[in-house]
């Protein structure tokens, strides 16, 4: 597959990632994220200023959200590349992201960002999705060799054979869906396309949010210049009547 095609896809779609994170930041409400964060943790860490609490809450929220948004971008990139190389397709099956045939094997793939993506219950749900997909695919061809793969866009797992499925991470995953052992390195450079300009716009909105949220927090949850922890805990955790 030509690198120019991959670079163009990345440059075209990385804009959506930056746009989504910026729009999400602009739409945030302090009260909404306050109810999702642990007030006891800030007290245990002896966080004393309104700005430090606001920054901690906002940074944690944005980090989690960016992982999700960027994970969707990488999933789309992997499907695009596999479609070009192996005529793969985005799967319509629940819990499956990608399907493609390579040589005499039909692969069903669940794509995750990194190797430590879920707990035992979530892994079990993925395995159930693999089982269902195999049953459906073999309805018309009982001899079809279907192999399930958990593909992780970064990281490492040196024991890929998990019995019921394979887990390919990092270089192993990108080579699996493209046939190119160096692809995992080649995609890093175009990811920085206009990143400086886009991040400057993001950080202007980030600074604005910090300042605005700090003023709101100080007004609503501070008394005599100190954090009113009881009021904060009641806001996030009390029974609504």
Which properties best describe this structure?
241 residues; alpha/beta; type ii restriction endonuclease, domain 1; type ii restriction endonuclease, domain 2; 2 domains; 9 helices; 7 strands; 12% strand
Can you give me a brief rundown of this structure?
The protein is of the alpha/beta class. It contains 9 helices and 7 strands; from the N terminus they run H-H-H-H-E-E-E-H-E-E-H-H-H-E-E-H. It has a 5-stranded mixed beta sheet with strand order 1-2-3-4-5, sandwiched between helices. Strands 6-7 form a two-stranded antiparallel ribbon.
Description:
The protein is an alpha/beta fold and 241 residues long. It has two domains: 123 residues, type ii restriction endonuclease, domain 1, CATH 1.10.3250; 107 residues, type ii restriction endonuclease, domain 2 (3-Layer(aba) Sandwich). The protein has nine helices and seven strands. A hairpin with a 2-residue loop joins strand 6 and strand 7. The radius of gyration is 22 Å and the shape is elongated. The termini are far apart.
